[in-house]
Amino acid sequence: MSGNSNVGQASVYEAGDQRNPKQSEVNKSEPYNEGKANSHNLLDSKDERSIANRLAAAERQEEPEDDLETRLGKKDPTLPAQIHGNEPSRGAKIDAELQAEEEEMLKNKGKA
């Protein structure tokens, strides 16, 4: 059996995509960034960080602020749809009714 094969295309046997680039082609001025942001769980019990480092990381972690629509939706569930010119959904209407009832109950109890 001969070493030459006529099976397949020539591109199948080319290994250009499998070879490492030359060092002269690699841009060494760019730092190599490992990992991605938020790829580690800060509360991982198997992490080998000290308690002080965990506390410092927890203090640095900030709560994301809500956008305008989320804040308005907490005040009145029908507002985000009305802002966009749409009719509020049935669920939003029910949520608004329940919220109004709860506020009325709190006023009756003298807490609001």
Automatic annotation (TrEMBL):
Residues 16-33, 43-61 have a biased composition (Basic and acidic residues). Residues 1-92 are annotated as: Disordered. It comes from the Eukaryota. This is Uncharacterized protein. It comes from Bionectria ochroleuca (Gliocladium roseum).
